[in-house]
Amino acid sequence: METFGIRIYKEYFNFAAAHFLIFEDGTREELHGHNYQVQMMIEGMLGGDKDIFIDFLHIKPIVKAICDSIDHRTIFPDSNPYITVKSDGGSVEAVYHDGDRWVIPSRDVVILPIPNTSAERLAQYLCHQTLQALAEKYPDAAISRVEFAVEESRGQAAVYRMAFEAPKPLHELDFNRSLVAR
């Protein structure tokens, strides 16, 4: 099978965010931050007599906007059994199972629909958000593979991939599927 694709790793695909990982045994890292860098690749079939799979001009602002939406924020997961995160409008309160507590102004926090704030889950989130936005512009684009990498520090990245046995139109993907499914 012959596929075409695009790979983008613009310098402005970045975000700075504070987070901590929660480990399987219920322990956690200290709150800290990274200057994340994002790379993406998407492959699929050219439709009909088209010569362009997906135009760079359309996808770059989508990925940049998603990165910007979490830039300079503290990131909390919304579905980890060891932490409860609540927003009252003006502030976000996160309570860890051992009693640690953070209260941060709402404008400085993003609560993501992920079970942990690992680079792997951030890559998955960015991928799903990008594909959902792309589906509005390219509903019939038949994709066979997509990959997002989130680099925490130079030379250290986590990768999330989606691949299909046969190319699948973007409008057939289920974006309501929970990112927390394990």
The topology string of helices and strands comes to EEEHEEEEEHEE
Low-confidence stretches: 178-182
Give the CATH level 1 class.
Alpha Beta
Note the main sheet. Answer: 7 strands, mixed
Mean pLDDT: 92
Number of strands: 10
Q: What Rg, in angstroms, do the CA atoms define?
A: 18 Å
What spatial form do the alpha-carbon principal axes imply? Answer: elongated
- Relevant CATH superfamily: 6-pyruvoyl tetrahydropterin synthase/QueD
Q: Could you tell me the strand content as a percent range?
A: 35-45%
Q: What's the number of structural domains? A: 1
Task: Describe the protein's architecture and organization.
By secondary structure, this protein is α+β, with helices and mostly antiparallel strands. It has a single domain (4-172), classed as 6-pyruvoyl tetrahydropterin synthase/QueD (Tetrahydropterin Synthase, Chain A, 2-Layer Sandwich). Helix content is 18%, strand content 41%. It has two helices and ten strands; from the N terminus they run βββαβββββαββ. It has helices at 56-69, 119-137; strands at 4-8, 14-19, 32-44, 73-77, 83-87, 91-96, 101-105, 109-112, 142-153, 156-169. Strands 1, 2, 3, 4, 8, 9 and 10 form a seven-stranded mixed sheet that branches. A hairpin with a 2-residue loop joins β9 and β10. The longest helix is centred in the last third of the chain and has 19 residues, at 119-137. The two termini are 31 Å apart. The model is unreliable at 178-182 (pLDDT under 50).
